[in-house]
UniProtKB/TrEMBL annotation:
SMART domains recorded: LRR_SD22, LRR_TYP, LRRCT
InterPro entries: Cys-rich_flank_reg_C, Dev_Immune_Receptor, Leu-rich_rpt, Leu-rich_rpt_typical-subtyp, LRR_dom_sf
This protein's name: Uncharacterized protein
Organism taxonomic ancestry: Eukaryota, Metazoa, Spiralia, Lophotrochozoa, Annelida
Pfam families: LRR_8
Ranges annotated as spanning the membrane: 383-409
Length: 451
């Protein structure tokens, strides 16, 4: 009993329900004809003495009690042997939070949550069926739960969902983690305008991410596809997830990220790609969330390098421990990132830097092969830098300056010649010039006379 007491106490605390502290005195439930079935349960009264919470946990009960106190809004029925849910008793109509975890539930009868009288049905806000053995949900399994916001089906054996969520218009969070899903019905999440949290972790989408089903998640902020045996992302697959902020793809088998893998994710703040087998990320792959991203986790992949232009690395939190990093000129930015995150980034190349940590390198040591430099010390690097880059540039600049100067000088000479002609015209024309002028005038007049 003490154990139950403590569990219920903690459970209610984590629910965050406003319970006056002095009222957290769990008591035996009311006695009387109706409440005979509650003998193994505990009740939580509010400060007026009305029971608002009921806990029947780890009891010998094998069915739901037909009656619970009238104003109860929270009902814990965890760790019993319910086996199946046939019908939620009509008397539960004040219930908002219902927990039936670890009950060996294999089956939920159709319309189990639907009351024949609309206003007397159950109007749950949260339903938790974690750790049961449910395999399938049908179109009418959850009918009637039109106010349900949180649905937790963690740790079942679900492989088929049909159109089970069609009635759950208020749904905000769905937890389908640790089930046996290999696919999702195309319209499974259709018409759920407030669905912001979708957790599909620990299912098996080896055959491909169910993009069609996900394409309606326009309001969804969190999508969890961790440990789903995903081998490949498809171009434009997340195109319609315009509100998505967090995308969890860690612990899959992804190898390649293209420029279009994340097309459409304009609001993303957190991307977790850790513990895949990624060896290539195309340079434009992260462009869609360049302005919004705050955290990228790339730990435990096969990444050799990440181009400096891919993301504003200096502004975001990037994790990339456990990659075979090539510490060349393109990875120079990683030094700041590593010193900030405290990660131990070890160089796998180039040869002279193998096993050095990124933070231990001198900035001049991040060089590229095609620079044709083999630096051994920072000083030499400086000299090679001057020889290979600065000298040619200086030469080019000098040539440019010289040719510009030449041009200017030439132009000036030409101009001064023109000018001297002009000035002499202002002065008196020479006799020769006069003769020339009259000749041309005659020439001009000639055609006129012909007319
Ligand atoms: C249920 O109670 C039994 C003893 O009555 C105990 O051994 C067991 O650990 C309890 N299970 C849970 C999940 O609390
Ligand atoms: C649903 O779950 C979320 C996250 O656990 C929680 O913050 C929220 O209060 C829950 N909503 C209801 C109605 O229980
Ligand atoms: C479900 O079972 C797992 C493994 O036994 C356990 O770790 C987890 O806490 C359980 N979850 C719930 C909500 O009971
Ligand atoms: C969705 O959420 C909004 C705001 O929280 C609420 O006003 C609206 O009624 C909800 N829609 C449905 C279908 O529950
Ligand atoms: C990917 O995008 C980058 C930057 O926009 C571009 O330079 C690169 O050529 C693109 N790669 C492919 C394979 O299209
Ligand atoms: C780098 O470290 C590994 C593991 O400590 C070691 O096996 C390897 O020989 C080292 N390589 C070089 C070039 O030092």
């Amino acid at each position: 009993m003490i154990m139950l007491h403590r569990t219920l106490y903690l459970a209610i605390l984590t629910l965050g329900v406003a319970v006056p502290s002095h009222a957290l005195n769990l008591q035996p439930c009311p006695t009387g004809e109706d409440y005979r079935q509650l003998s193994e349960c505990l009740c939580l009264p509010d400060d007026r003495g009305d029971v608002i919470g009921v806990g029947c946990m780890n009891t010998t009960m094998t069915s739901l009690p037909n009656h619970i106190p009238r104003y109860a809004s929270i009902f814990y029925f965890d760790d019993n042997r319910l086996g199946s849910i046939i019908k939620i008793p009509a008397n539960y109509h004040h219930l908002e939070y219902m927990y039936m975890r670890n009950n060996g539930i294999q089956k939920i009868e159709k319309l189990a949550f639907k009351s024949p009288e609309e206003d007397h049905g159950v109007h749950l806000h949260e339903l938790d069926l974690s750790n049961n053995t449910i395999q399938r949900l049908f179109q009418e399994t959850l009918t009637g739960l039109d106010r349900l916001e949180n649905l937790t089906l963690y740790g079942n054996q679900i492989y088929e969902l049909q159109n089970a969520f069609a009635d759950l218009k208020s749904l905000r969070l769905i937890d389908l983690r640790n089930n046996k899903l290999r696919r999702l019905e195309d319209n499974i999440f259709a018409n759920l305008p407030n669905l912001t949290d979708v957790a599909l972790e620990m299912n098996n989408f080896q055959g491909g991410i169910p993009y069609k089903a996900l394409s309606v998640l326009k309001q969804t902020q969190m999508l969890n596809l961790r440990s789903c045996s995903i081998a490949q992302l498809h171009d434009d697959g997340f195109l319609y997830l315009q509100s998505l902020q967090q995308l969890h793809l860690q612990h899959n088998d992804i190898e390649y990220i293209t420029n279009n893998s994340f097309n459409g994710l304009m609001q993303l703040t957190m991307l977790d790609l850790s513990y895949n087998s990624i060896h290539t990320i195309e340079t434009g792959a992260f462009q869609y969330f360049y302005d919004t991203i705050k955290e990228v986790n790339l730990r435990g992949n096969q990444i050799i390098g990440l181009h400096p232009s891919m993301l504003p690395w200096e502004r975001i939190n990037v994790m990339m421990e456990g990659n075979p990093l090539e510490c060349d000129c393109e990875l120079a930015w990683a030094q700041l990132a590593a010193s900030r995150s405290g990660e131990l980034l070890i160089c796998t190349g180039p040869e002279q830097l193998i096993n050095r940590t990124v933070t231990s390198l001198h900035p001049n040591e991040f060089v590229c092969e095609n620079d044709n430099r083999t630096p051994t010390t920072a000083g030499l690097t400086g000299i090679t830098l001057i020889l290979v880059i600065v000298l040619p540039i200086a030469l080019i600049i000098i040539i440019v300056i010289l040719s510009v100067v030449c041009c200017i000088v030439k132009k000036r000479k030409a101009k001064s010649r023109k000018r001297s002609v002009k000035y002499s015209a202002v002065y008196k024309p020479t006799t020769e010039e006069k003769a020339q002028m009259s000749k041309t005038q005659v020439k001009k007049q000639m055609p006129k006379t012909e007319l």
